Queue: 2 jobs
Job 1
Amino acid sequence: MGYINEFDSIKLDVLREIGNIGAGHAATSLSKLLNKKIDMKVPDVQIVTFDEMMEMAGGADNIVAGVFLRIEGDIPGSMFFILPLEQATKFVQEMIGDSTVNLAAPPYDELSISALQELGNILSGSYLSSLSDFTQLSLYPSVPALAIDMVGAIVTYGLVEHSQVSDYAIVINTELKGEDIRLSDTVNGHFFLLPDPASFSPLFQSLGVKDGD
Amino acid sequence: MTEQITVIKVGIADMNVVQSPNTIRTSGLGSCVGIVLYSPMKPIAGLAHIMLPEASISKSGTVNKAKFADTAIVELVERLEGLGVKRSTLLAKIAGGAQMFQFNGTSDIMRIGPRNVEAVKNTLQALKIKLVSEDVGGNSGRTIEFSPVTHQLTIRTVNKGIHII
């Protein structure tokens, strides 16, 4: 497992806290945007195989709306906001106040796509700016890109850096759930933060966790 | 007539072989490429789901051969030979190598799909394996399934439905 062997419980706790802070701010933004209560699960940090990573988002074949952005700066990495299609449709309907919106099949109307992109923009922006404030590290996120497609096809972009070093990825995973959104517990929005392998050392350093601690 | 058909599943950076009447499948190919090697002489085929073009870009000590185009194809050929398939009869079909996201600027990560396809083709050429058909590029994910009996590669995409190469 290479560098992943060095992850002890303290480091995993630190990563969990990062997920907590970032996703907490993002959930607040989402709550304001939709004017309703958004529940957030305590983030989990998992060291997973690439296949397990796909399972976390519902399986490689599962069709989702995925917002992806690259983070450059002190701690390069990838970030995803993944929504099951049913829930993405619901979010868009709420955002633009049109209950006829349907994302089940293309062609998707431009307004829906813009709304989803904007949702991704707002959420990832608030996640990363709170992370930057907390760590005092410089993060330069790319403009988020949106795809409605299979989880496997979307998420592998975040694994390219990992795959050069390891067969495992460290995923900081936070689930979001809207209170009024009548969907089963299994369909939730996910934030996946995937720092590149080389980013862990500067990340821990910024938070005062020394190597070998 | 009620022969049980099992679908052999291949994960990411993984490979396997299949014998008739079973089929072999891999799901959610984006920038990754699915490579099928088969022989018209025997109802046996192999499938690899590769993530990266060359093992030489690996920064880890141990190499998972199924992860890279060059090592995966060589390994798959050897496995098929081990099952009695003649190397000179091998044919290939490939799918994947998409660019799922459109970004301004062209970082290496964004170009990984086309790079994978190129590496697969170069390796097949070096091993003198004929590429019979391909469905590569574009911006859609693909799930593929191959039957070693019919030699059909069935490709499912979200936007274009099902087609067979």
Job 2
Amino acid sequence: MHTELTIETPHQRQNRHKAMEAISVLNALKEDFKSPIRSMGYFYDLFEKVYCRHEPLHEGKAKIGTMCIQIPSEIIYALEGIPIRLCNGFYTDDEIGSDLLPQKSCPLVKATVGWFASDNFSDKPDITFSPTTCDQKTKAGAIIGSFGHTVIDVGFPRTKESEESRHYWRESVKSFAVKLSKFQGKKLTKSNLESAIKKVGYAQSLYHKLTEFRKAKAVPILGVDMFLVTNAFFFDKIDEWIGAVEKLLAELEQRVNDGVNVAGKASPRIVYTGSPPIFPNYKIPLIIEESDAIIVADETCSSNRMFNDMVAVDEWNLYDMIDSVSDKYLKACTCPIFTQNDDRIRRIIQLVHTYKGDGVIYQAFAGCQVYEMEQRSVLAAMEREGIPILYIESDYSPSQHGQLTTRVEAFVESLKNRKRMKK
Amino acid sequence: MKNKFSLRRAVNNMNLVRFRFWFQIAAFAFIVYGGYIGLDLGNKLPTFACVYNAEGTGGKCYVGMLQHDLKHPIDVFMGYAGYAFLISLVMFMVWFWVLNKGWCGFVCPLGTMQDWLTMLREKTKIRFSEYSWANRGKIKSIKYILLFLLLLLPVMIANSVFGIPKLPNGLSMPFCDICPGRMMIPAFTGDFNQFYIDFSSKTDIVMTTIGMIMTGLFLAGSFIKKRFFCYFCPMAALQYIFSKPALLKLYKDGSKCTRCGDCYRACDMDILEIADDVTTKNMVTEDCTLCLKCVAACPEEGCLEANFMGATIFESTKEGFVLRMAMDQRGEKHAH
Ligand code: SF4
Ligand code: SF4
Ligand code: SF4
Ligand code: SF4
Ligand code: SF4
């Protein structure tokens, strides 16, 4: 035992494996594509710092874990906490979690549970709020709690159409705010919530400006880079993230003027949807963009859905702001856990039209019931609209790479043919 | 081209709340004081320009006129009175078609007063109330009942309907008797003579008492509930009947809507359809006041728009949204 310790502890081994996963993706991002963006350097460094060198970002601050996008970061920032979203994309952690969860579980959930089981964080959350979204997330919250971690459930409705759901969720958010406020020993006030709403709103507005660039014929930024930027928002210091995105925007502006295109002239434009790409599991997005296609938009909770709709306040009083924030996190959400999938379908179609997509790629994690179940409804809708779509099931393991590449390449090829025929 | 583009952009980025505030003040002054400088738009206006504000008004309320028009024995009505009625109605429709329900959101003095009371409440930080959803549906029909009564009662004064004896003359302007406009609008010209209970007959006592109560409710109700009175307003019901061909429209492109509900949150009339309906194009619903707050609150590019005779005049944009919500700067401090 002792000798083993001097060689490598399990934590050290886990970190080494994660660093290897992280660095291979970062290297691919940095090296495999033409015309790299200088200001993406900030994000590459950030991920290297956290996932390769294991350096903490928020020492001395209260870190508030969240299990999904539905926990309002506005309220966490207002109460001076740091929201850390715990959705995990590491195969290493997925394997640890596999021993604790059924074989067929969602890799994202397994990886999150595995992360907690190993208790190996650079920034360990002090408390975690778990919205009861999909079954697996819900259960994962309880399992993580059984490891001795503080996890608080935040009741999330599964039907979003009804007024009952709206009321239920508003109450949930209020009680979340009360609990967090107690935990932090701080009061939620009109002024701290207002400035948090405006800060997060500003960050969102920057994201929207970034997406504007992707509408153009010559796309100045890769989809995988965009995923990296949005994933960084999971854990970065918000002010630094804002600063980095401002720089990125300026550089993209320049690139547009210079006519830089990160894709080829004939590269099909892809709208991406399904289970969320979370660093470093960029398997499918990387395959897509290495196969001479370009992701111009997405409908996933790790990116577009997270930033899309903004909080609108009518009366800037505390009660109205809390209700507005609650509504945004429920009503605008297009998560497939909801009974109806119509909003999500409409959104995908809308993205295809606004971003002039040539096709849709739908990834579902093996074991993710909701995305697997909604596959049919989305496929049928795309067929009606005449939008080509490819459905892929994947997980975090590096094994199926070859087979997936073949399928994606074939799809991209068919899109290219279609484009040629149209001309 | 560039110029046109920036004008459009400037309009879409405007601060609607401020624009509406000043527009309403100007319209209010016009309606309530216009008469003093000789303005007169006639007596068929689709808004509460109260006839009891005799000296001041810059135009007069059609609901008052309508009750007057209907108080004729049937044979007279079949003759010249019927023509007069039709001509009035057409005049009303023409006025109404210009602004559609925008008369409510931008012109009606009673609507404006309610908005002022809302602002006052906001200052006191008192929370607004909402009607419960169970009652919301029932409330909707009250304005039609009121409209029906105000059409029927004058007829019943001049005629015996179904053998029922004629109604007493005290009911000749039944809605005016209970309309808060009768007291509130002249009050702004210093004329408080309408605050009284008329003891000349039983009907008058009852009606003027209801009138006083209505005015009290109007003031108290709209302090705690935005546009409290508009939910019951028979003018709104009358307007809605003619709303379809109007020139000003509120259009929605459902394919762009994410049903985020931001528009519904902004709507003083709690109109759920504005957020939830993704198939209808024309969103001017019966309770809508065309205030355009929903357009200003929608964060989706081109999803909601105010349209005049086929031309977009104001539409939702991301940029406009961010500016109006003051989310355009990274700092903590924002000027309001
Ligand atoms: S990918 Fe599916 S199963 Fe996994 S957390 Fe998301 S919704 Fe749940
Ligand atoms: S009392 Fe009311 S309905 Fe009658 S004329 Fe005046 S504003 Fe119009
Ligand atoms: S609904 Fe009636 S009271 Fe309200 S603004 Fe319209 S006309 Fe005026
Ligand atoms: S604010 Fe716009 S996008 Fe949101 S529900 Fe209303 S119309 Fe739809
Ligand atoms: S639907 Fe829009 S225009 Fe109509 S009342 Fe509501 S906010 Fe105003």
